[in-house]
Amino acid sequence: MADATATLRVFRGDAETGKAVDYEVPLTPGMVVLDAIHSIQANQSPDLAVRWNCKAAKCGSCSAEVNGRPKLMCKTRMDSLPPDQPITVFPIKTFPVIKDLVTDVSWNYEVNKKIPAFKPKPNAEWKMYQRDVDRGQEFRKCIECFLCQNVCHVLRDHDKKQDFGGPRFFVRTAALEMHPLDSRNRIPLLREQLGIGYCNITKCCTEVCPEDIHITDNAIIPLKERVVDQFYDPLTMIVRKIFPAK
Amino acid sequence: MSPATKYETHEHDVLIIGAGGAGLRAAIEALAQGARVGVVCKSLLGKAHTVMAEGGLAAAMANVDKADNWRTHFRDTMSGGKYLNNWRMAQLHAQEAPDRVRELEQWGALFDRTDTGDILQRAFGGHTFKRLCHVGDRTGLEMIRTLQDRGVDLGFDVYMECTITRLLKDGDRVCGAFGYWRNSGNLVVFKAKSIVIATGGIGKSWKITSNSWECTGDGMALAYEAGAELLDMEFVQFHPTGMVWPPGVRGILVTEAVRGEGGILRNKNGERFMEKYDPKRLELSTRDIVARSIYTEVREGRGSEHGGAYLNISHKPAEYVKRKLPSMYHQFKELADVDITKGPMEVGPTCHYVMGGIRVDAETGQSTVPGLFAAGEAAGGMHGANRLGGNSLSDLLVFGRRAGLAAAQQAGKCPATAIDNAQIEAAERDLLAPFTRAGGENPYKIHENLQDVMQSLVGIFRNDEDLRKAIVELEKLKARAANASASGSHVYNTGWHLTRDLQSMLTVSEACAHAALARTESRGAHSRIDFPKTEDAWGKKNLIIAKKGSAMTLTEVPRGAMPAELQEILAESK
Question: ipTM more than 0.90?
C-alpha cells in the first residue's frame, strides 16, 4: 500500500485551449479525489486551479466530472474507482471553463436573483410544526454544488440558459412555495421566466444530488402540477375569464 | 497612468470584507440604513466557513427549558470563557441573540420545531439549559442561505472570489482596500467610508484543523498592518471532536451535537473517561476540558486505534440518529466506512476557532483605527479564554448587525478622504513580487512547515521552551515566505494566491505564539504545562498585539471593573 500510486488525468487549460495531463499520485488509505488534486498542487503543479472549501460535502464547491461522472471531489473515494486505469478529472461541462477545474458559474447567481425572496403572511403567528417544515427542509439541504444544473440536458445539451432556470432553482422555488408562512405566488415566474415546462422529468438531477434531495419527485413535479392548476385547469380558466385578476 | 484608470475601482459607503454570517448580517444592517454596500469574499457567495457550522445557534429563547433567560446565558458564557470575556459583549450577546434568531425565521429560515410549533433547542457543552436552535446538524448552511437570500433581496453588490491584500488609509483613517480577482489576477481598488472586517478565523495555520483554505487570518493581518490592535491571540480553541481516520479527513469536524444528543466518549479500555475529568458535566463539559481530556487519554496510551477516542451514539435509535445527525451519518459512512448508528466514531481534537481577534468596542465593533470595524471570529473579546459551542453563530448575528449599523452610521458622517496612489503601487508590488522571483520556494512547502510548527509547538499544551522555539521557527518561515515564487499565468493561480495567504497566516501565527509565551498561566483554551494554575492576576488583564514601526509589540492592558449588576448575575450561580 505504501508505494501504491494512481494516475490522475486532469484537464489543464482555459476557456480557449486545454489538454489532459497525467500525474502520478501516491495513495493513502481512505483518500478522496480532492486529496489527490491537493497532492498535485503541493508537489507537482502549484498553479493547478480548483475550487474547494469545507472538504466535507457541506459547501458544494469542488464539483467536477470524475471518470465522466459528476461528483463532489471531496466525497469521491479513490478506492471506489478502477485502480488499473487513469482517473480522469475534468471541469463540469455545462459552464464555461475559467481555468483547469474551475468554471464560471456566475449564471446561476443571476438566475437566483429572479426569484422573489420569502415574504411572510401578514400577522403571521410564527408557529410551525415539524410536519409542515419537513418538505421545505429537504430542499434547504441544497449546498449549491450545481451538479444538477451540470447534468440537466436542457442546460447541458440544449444550452437553454436564457429560458430555463434549472433544477437548483426549482428546488429553491419549491422551498419558498412550500414554506407554511410564505405569502407570494411564484408560479407565473416558474412558467414564464424559469421555463419549468422544458423539464421532461428524466431525473438526471435527482441521480447526481449529493444531498439526496428528491429534486424531480418532491420539487419539480409538484411545481409543474401547480403551474397546470393555475394556468391550464379548465374550471379555473373559466373563473378567471369571468373574474379577471385585479 | 493614474490609478483611477489603471485599476478597476468601485466605491461604497460601507465595504464588508468576508461573506460568512458576520459579514452578511453586517451587510443587511448597513443596507437597511440606506448605505451603499459592497461585500468582498474569497470564495463564491454561500461557501464561507459558516456553512460548516453544524450543531446550532445559542439563544435563550426558553422554548424547551422555560427557566432559561439571558442572565443564565450570560453567566454560562462568562464561566465558559473563564471570565476573560469582554463582559459587555457577553451581555449584549445574551440579550440580543433571541431577537436575531427570530429575525432569521422571519427571513425564511426553517429551524427544527418543538411539539408546540416553536423553534426546537438542544443541549450543548457548558450551557445550563437546552439552548441551541438548530436544523439537524446543518445549522450553518441554513443560516448562511437565509442571510444570502436576504442580502440578494435587499440588493447588495457582491464581489466573489476577490482577495483583499491591503487596507488603504488617509491619515489615520481607512478609506479603501486593494485586492485582486482570483479568477483573472486583475487588480481592484475599493473606495469606502467605513470597512467591516468579517473574515473569520486563523485555523489554516495548524496541521489538524476543521478550517477551510480561507481561514488564514487575512482580516486580522490587514487590520494589524493598518495599525489596529489584536486582543487575546493566545486563545485558540481545539474542538474536542474532529475525525482522525482515514488520514485525508483528519481534522474534519464532528459536531458537538453528537454529544448534545447523548453521545458518549470512551477510551480503548471502554472507560467513560470524562467521569474522571468533569464528573458533573461529563461529555457536555466545555470544549477546552473535553479536548484536553481526549488528548491526555491518547498521550497516556489509552487512545483509540488511530490515536483518538471513541464517540458512540449508536445506543440511540438509528432513525433518530439519521434525522438529528444526517450529515455526520453520511460523513462517516462515505469517508470512513463507519456506520454511526451501529458503532463508535473515532474522534480527536482539531483546531477550530480563535477567541482572540481585532480589539473592538463592544457596542459598535469599532476597532482602534477610525473607519475600521470588525465582527465575528475576526473580532476578539466576546468569548474570553474559551468559546461555548453555539455561541459563534449567535455572535455573528449580534455583532455583525451592530458593526453594520455603526459602520453605516459612521459612513454618513465621514469626512472626504483621498486614495493615496503610493499605497496602491506598493501593494501591487508586494502582490506581484512572487512572479518576479523565479526559482524561489514552493509556497505549499512553506505552508506545510508552518502547520507542523504551530501544531507541535503552539498546540493544546504549551510550554516556554516550545513557544520560544516556535517564534524562532516562524522567523525562518517568514524569511522563506519572502522568497516564495509563483509561476504560470495570473488566472486562478492557486500557488500565487497561497503566497499572499501565507503572509496573513505568518502574522497571526506570530501574534499567537508571542501572546501564548507571555501569558504565564493556564486559562480556558490556553494550557501551559509549566504554569498549570489559573492566576487571578492574569484574569485582570488582556494581552494586546500591535505593530510599532515594523515590529510586533505586546502589551498588557488592565481590564475595567464589571458593573455591579453583572457581578450579581455571576454570583447567582454559586
Answer: yes
